[in-house]
Design a protein that fits this description.
With 260 residues, this protein is mostly helical. It has helices at residues 16-26, 29-63, 76-108, 112-116, 123-165, 185-259, and strands spanning 2-4, 119-121, 169-170, 173-174. The two termini are 53 Å apart.
């Protein structure tokens, strides 16, 4: 994807401080920030989302008497179990994806030339950069959907809580459906609600990380494109200079032969 040619100056010929400064200059800070934000958001979403789903199962089974259907039947509790496995997959997938984006950021950072020398960009490198942009955009849309889906239980609980603040009494009947009437279940309900809020915040952080990655990848793509054009220009220039040198050498030999 990217081929490099090492310069004579390396960290072995520098002092400890100079080597550390040079290594810090190589770091793709934009990609590093986006990766940290992505990991924090995914960890918050997966951890809190998993516990919120477990709390939802506890509430349904203990306070709404929801029983698990036979194995071959798809019920609410089975769907929640499936969502838990999806969370496991999301955590593993985005851990790997964050590492891949960091590696891509290292290879497309302009500062890397100061350490490893000039590098040549192949067609494969340009295709990989474009592929990362497309994949990150798809993940951005997916996280938007996840954020919208996670906001549903938060919205429902907030609506009920708001209605219960303005309780309406008609003919002695309380029309407010206050979920706190389940006694000790209110503690589990409140904890589950706050876990869903944290999961929503994690999904929002992942969306911001995807946007940041899109900006970083677009800038890297522009750099790769400009570097590719510069590489072609340098190749053409070198070829023309070699041809001119060959012409001058041939003419010099002809003149020398004519004099002799």
């Amino acid at each position: 994807m990217f081929t490099t040619s090492h310069k004579s100056s390396s960290c072995s010929s520098l002092g400890c401080f100079e080597c550390c400064v040079k290594c810090l200059g190589v770091l793709p800070y934009a990609s590093l920030f986006a990766t940290i934000l992505l990991y924090a958001g995914v960890a918050l979403f997966c951890g809190c989302g998993h516990e919120a789903l477990s709390g939802t199962v506890t509430i349904l089974q203990n306070y709404f008497e929801v029983v698990r259907a036979p194995v071959e039947t798809l019920d609410v509790l089975t769907m929640i179990d499936i969502l838990k496995y999806v969370i496991y997959g999301v955590a593993a997938a985005f851990f790997v994806y964050g590492i891949l984006l960091m590696v891509e950021g290292f290879f497309t950072t302009g500062a890397i030339r100061d350490l490893y020398g000039d590098f040549k960009i192949t067609a494969c490198g340009r295709c990989v950069s474009a592929w990362f942009i497309m994949l990150t955009y798809i993940f951005f849309l997916a996280w938007l959907g996840v954020t919208a889906f996670t906001s549903l239980p938060v919205f429902m609980y907030f609506n009920i809580w708001t209605i219960c603040q303005n309780t309406t009494v008609v003919e002695g009947a309380n029309l407010c459906l206050d979920l706190r009437q389940f006694g000790k279940g209110a503690l589990v309900l409140d904890m589950t609600f706050h876990l869903f809020v944290c999961a929503l915040a994690g999904a929002g952080a992942a969306v911001i990380a995807m946007v940041h990655y899109l900006m970083v990848l677009s800038a890297n793509w522009a750099y790769v494109k400009d570097a590719c054009r510069m590489q072609k220009y340098e190749d053409i220039k070198s070829k023309e200079e070699q041809e001119l040198h060959d012409i001058h050498s041939t003419r010099s030999k002809e003149r020398l032969n004519a004099y002799t």
